[in-house]
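#struct-pred
JK: can someone run the complex with zinc ion? inputs below
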Amino acid sequence: MANLKGRNLISITDYTKQEYMQILELAAEFEANPRQELLKDKVIASIFFEPSTRTRLSFESAASLLGAKVIGFSNPAATSQSKGESLHDTIKMLSAYSDLIVMRHNKEGAARYAAEVSDVPLINAGDGANQHPTQCMLDLYSILKTQGKLDNLHITLVGDLKYGRTVHSLVQAMCNFNATFHLVSPVELKLPSSVKMHIKRAKLDYYQYTNIKDAVAVSDIIYMTRVQRERFSDPLEYEKVKDSCILDLATLEGCQESMRILHPLPRVNEITTDVDKTQNAYYFQQAKNGVYVRQALMAAILGIK
Amino acid sequence: MTTKNKKELIVSAIENGTVIDHIPVNAVLKVIKILGIDAHQDEVLIGMNLESKKYGRKGIIKVRNKYFEKSDLNKIALAAPHATLIVIKDYEVAEKIAVQIPNTIEKIVKCINPNCITNNEEMDTKFSVIEKEPLKIQCHYCEKTMTNIRFTE
Ligand SMILES: [Zn+2]
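RT: done, structure tokens with the ligand placed:
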């Protein structure tokens, strides 16, 4: 088994397929038995240079379930960075007080740099528009749990495929598992060619659609994201396409029974609330899975599991 | 003076040192900066707009009593991809080296992403070269790929 002790997690490509699988198996153990005080003598620094309540609570809840002490900050105005301290110095100071750092930062590349500066391992909880690897791992865990496997699945990605960071990471990760991709988006928000390159390099297939209806029947997973009005240069264009990426009860008709709907949350109106009570809705459970995956990561990186 | 003699004069006018030939005219100052030639204490001769069969006009730099590390030389490949380095010993050409684009680039290039940590913190940049022809590099930090190279000031 691969040893993840002392490793950083900055980008989804930092870990091999086997290493992902190891974390996902461990996450299942924590889901079965979440309260294990394995990190009782450990201190985890949770530092959020930009607010992200959802991600922060998930990490801190994972740390608490493992019995670790959590230090840090969640309000950027309260940090010494707002007083002009460099990221370098903040990380140097925090790595002296902690065994592991969880960091969210608004600048791309901040996590890679902080990990180079830090004396303790670092988990990237999002660096600007770049990477958010634990979100990707919880997506993988949710897919594995609902489909019983990761291999040979039809993955449908819907909405803003151009700017959606979680979409890009998920495509990259699923390229390891012989997926077929169905890409549903307005023309203006198509998956960038740099991300399609990963699919081509893995010699996998992808199909593009502009209306979600055309991809529902074939899907094992439908991964929804929000289409934001601000992304359109022409507001009329937004009005024209805004309904083509909305999932409602009528659109679901003809889907496979085993199909599950994922969403990184928060949702606005791209999934109508009448879908929530269907057996296909999985997005709230998906968020909860984040805690187990983060428990698994922390335990593995600190060498306890 | 014949063309041949003129050429020899250009190349061999120093007793010991390095001649950097076939530099695009607009990259001469960049090359000087990248190699730190501006801080060199001995004689430096700079030729601009010289005739070149291959490139129309070219630049040339002669640095007396100075030899460079190969890793240093490859840095200039970004500004002058077809440059030739001529090592001169006792007025003779001791070695000719064609520069090569390195696999990683540190410090001398700036990331094009304004929201990259390298543009917001006092630190060195680092890139990996994804493709050499045409040049495509990726920022080690923000992971953006770029094709137009901007040098740090
Ligand atoms: Zn960058």
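RT: quick notes.
The first helix of chain A runs from residue 17 to 32.
Residues A 109; B 111, 113, 116, 118, 139, 141-142, 144 surround zinc ion (CB under 6 Å).
JK: thanks, will look after standup
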